[in-house]
Amino acid sequence: MSASQEQIDNLIHKEYKPGFVTDLEADTLPPGLNEEVIRAISQRKNEPPFMLAWRLKAYEQWLTMSEPDWAYLDYQAIDYNSISYYSAPKVKEAPKSLDEVDPKLIETYKKLGIPLHEQERLAGVAVDAVFDSVSVATTFKHKLKEAGVIFCSFSEAVHTHPELIQQYLGSVVPPSDNFFAALNAAVFSDGSFVFIPKGVRCPMELSTYFRINAANTGQFERTLIIAEDYSHVSYLEGCTAPMRDENQLHAAVVELIALDHAEIKYSTVQNWYPGDEEGRGGIFNFVTKRGDCRGRHAKISWTQVETGSAITWKYPSCILRGDHSIGEFYSVAVSNHRQQADTGTKMIHIGKNTKSTIISKGISAGRAENTYRGQVKILPGALNARNYTQCDSLLIGPKCGAHTFPYIEIKEPTARLEHEATTAKISEDQLFFCQQRGLSAEDAVSMIVNGFCKQVFKELPMEFAVEAQALLGISLEGSVG
Amino acid sequence: MLSIQHLEARAGEQAILNGISLEIKPGEVHAIMGPNGSGKSTLSNILAGREGYEVTHGSVTYEGKDLLVMKPEERAREGIFLAFQYPVEIPGVSNIYLLKAALNAIRKHHGQTEVDAMDFLQLVKSKIKSLNLDEQFLYRGVNEGFSGGEKKRNEILQMAILEPRLCILDETDSGLDIDALKIVADGVNALRSPTRSFIMVTHYQRLLSYIKPDVVHVLAQGRIVKSGGPELALELEARGYGWIDASLNH
Question: Do B76 and A436 touch (CB under 8 A)?
Answer without folding.
Answer: yes
